[in-house]
Each structure stands twice: as C-alpha cells, then as structure tokens.
Specification:
The protein is α/β, with parallel strands linked by helices. Helices cover 50% and strands 16% of the residues. It has 14 helices and nine strands. β1 and β2 form a beta hairpin.
Length: 354
C-alpha cells in the first residue's frame, strides 16, 4: 500500500461520492416526476414543503425530506429566508418543461430500468449470450422512448431532415417514408406532423412497442397517414420508399450489415437513408473523458450489446461504434456514398445514398 498516492485516492473518492449522490437521486427524482412535485413547482411557483404537500395531496413529512434531497442534489432551489423551494429557469428546463431539449424524466427512468435488468445481463456475461429487447426489465422500451423524445422533438424537423440533400422538397410535396426501428413511434409521428403531404410507416420487431405506437397514432389523429407494423428490418416487404429513417437503432441490430443491404433494396434509386446514431469518435481513446460517452458506454453494456447478441449474427456494434465503422458497414452493403449530414451534442446524422 506504500505506492498509494493520497491525493489521487482522495480525488477518486471525491468523484465517487459525487457519482453515488447522482445514483442515489434516481428513485427520489422519479418520485418527483411521478407524483407531480416538479410539475407543481414549475407551474405554481415557489412553495414551502407544507404548501407543496397541500398542492399535490401528499404527506408533508415525505415532501419535506424529498425537497431537501433535491436541494442537496442541486435540482431545486431552496431559499432559507422564505423556507421555500422553487425551480430556477434552468432547473425547469430539465425537470419541468416537457418539450425542452434537456428534459430528463426519461433518462432517470432509463437508469432505473438498467438496474432492474442487471440480473439478466449479469447472467449473459457468463454465457456470452444476449438479452432480448424488452425482456431485461419491465418497461425498458417505454423508458428508451421517453429518453429520446425531447431530442427528437427539437431536432428531427428543425435540423436533421433539412440537412439531407434534396429531401425536404420531397417531404413537402408528398413522399413515402419508412421509419425502421421506430419503437413506440415518437419519431414517426413527429415527421408526420411536420410533413402532412407525406405518408409514413413505422416498423419495429417488438410487438408491445408497435401496440403503443398505434395507440399514439390514433390519439394524434394521424391514422390516415401513419401506420405501424411489427416486422424485423430484413423482413420488410414494401419497396420504393423515398426516405428511410433509423433513429438510434442500427447499432442495436444483430445483423447491421444484412439490414443495410436490405434497406438498399427498399429505396428508390434516388432515395435516401438517414441514420441517427450516438455521437462517438472512431477509437476508444476518442470516447474517454467526456460525460456523453460515459453514458453511452454504460447504456451500451446494459442494453445495446445484450440486445444485439440476442439476435442472429450478433455483431454487437455497441453505442460507440463511431462514424468510420458505421460507414464501413453501410458501404459494404452497396451504398455508394455516406456523409455526416449534421450532428448535435448527443447524436450524429448520417445520410446514405444507393
């Protein structure tokens, strides 16, 4: 033990205390979302713990401890002079404004689902097998949909689709679009709302996700232009799409190369394939030392790699595959060109052409 550097040890322990504080906050933050505590602070303004309990119909003693926990987290603001809790405008963007690009309710749910899924993933470590999508925990697919929704709301129609060459006029005039790996349908419905002259079909191999997607389409009154079908990517039979989209799912597929080859068959000769994938560098060293890659590597360990290994081939690209690897997969399937059309803090958008 004589070779221990005390300063380095103290720094590591300090870091771990911060990390554990974040981990311990997951259940209390989820309670705040689920019981309307954050929503009340956002909509109705500052309140003492007693007043917040009255507003929400909850027990004051629990609310008081919860509020102090969130103040300690830095997630709500405490004014000791007024004995009141509130959300600053910045805190509201994370905990109160559902269409904010940084609204993170889904992220906390996703963290909880990963913990719930630990036993199955841990068992897979010993066998090398996979864990089928949706089976690692109770509602992983719900949490994933909620996690990605804020980013999609703020980027699909505003930045990602406009970055594609010549695609916007087609969507405005009336295009046929396939959203492959659509999950619960948020991405498909957002595109349909933005481009009312186009028709959309969402495909996903997970039946419960498609059930939710069809319910969402009905609730949004888009059933005449949007439909959802349960199908594996390589089993899709329809052809002649002007645009195929994949949002955060190619790296989850067991056979991404076979999938890419099939997508090429589904496109018109002048069609485009838009792939939204997690932002990543091309080498492991490029993906260390930043908080986004940290999130993605951990999520990939618990979700993306087990999901791919549960399917045929099981290439398990992982969430940090990088543009060079993805381009190699896509071009290997016969696409003539791949380019990075745009990017954001969490995603890169690739455009592939036949």
């Amino acid at each position: 033990m004589n070779d221990i550097d005390g300063d380095k040890l103290n720094a590591l322990v300090g870091k771990m205390l911060g990390d554990l504080g974040g981990a311990y906050s997951v259940p209390t933050v989820r309670i705040g979302f689920r019981l309307g505590l954050f929503a009340s602070l956002h909509k109705d303004g500052a309140a003492s713990a007693a007043d917040l309990a009255k507003r929400t119909g909850l027990a004051e003693r629990y609310v008081r401890e919860w509020a102090m926990a969130q103040a300690a987290n830095g997630y709500v603001t405490f004014d000791p002079a007024r004995n009141a809790f509130s959300l600053s405008p910045e805190q509201a963007m994370v905990f109160g404004v559902k269409d904010s690009p940084v609204y993170l309710e889904g992220a906390f749910d996703l963290a909880a689902e990963m913990v719930h899924g630990q036993p199955k993933v841990e068992a897979a470590f010993k066998t090398g097998g996979g864990v089928t999508w949706g089976e690692s925990s109770g509602c992983l697919f719900c949490a994933v949909g909620a996690f990605f929704r804020p980013g999609y709301v703020n980027a699909i129609a505003q930045a990602w689709l406009p970055a594609l060459d010549g695609v916007l006029p087609k969507l405005q005039a009336g295009a046929r679009v396939a959203d492959v790996g659509c999950g619960v349908g948020f991405s498909t419905l957002l595109m349909a709302e933005a481009y009312p002259n186009s028709t959309f079909v969402g495909y996903d191999f997970h039946g419960p996700s498609i059930e939710q997607a069809n319910a969402h389409a009905k609730a949004h009154g888009l059933g005449d232009r949007v439909r959802f079908e349960t199908a594996k990517a390589k089993d899709i039979a329809e052809r002649d799409f002007d645009l195929i989209t994949m949002f955060d799912c190619l790296h989850d597929m067991g056979d991404p190369r076979g999938c890419a080859a099939h997508m090429r068959k589904l496109l018109k000769a002048d069609g485009a394939w838009m792939l939204v994938e997690p932002i990543a560098g091309d080498t492991p060293a490029d993906n260390l030392g930043n908080p986004v890659s940290r999130l993605y590597y951990n999520a990939s360990t618990m979700i993306c790699v087990p999901t791919s290994l549960a399917q045929e081939v099981g290439e398990a690209l992982g969430a940090q595959a990088g543009e060079a690897k993805l381009t190699e997969v896509i071009k290997g399937a016969g696409f003539s060109s791949v380019r990075r059309a745009t990017q954001g803090p969490f995603n890169m958008v690739l455009e592939a052409r036949p």
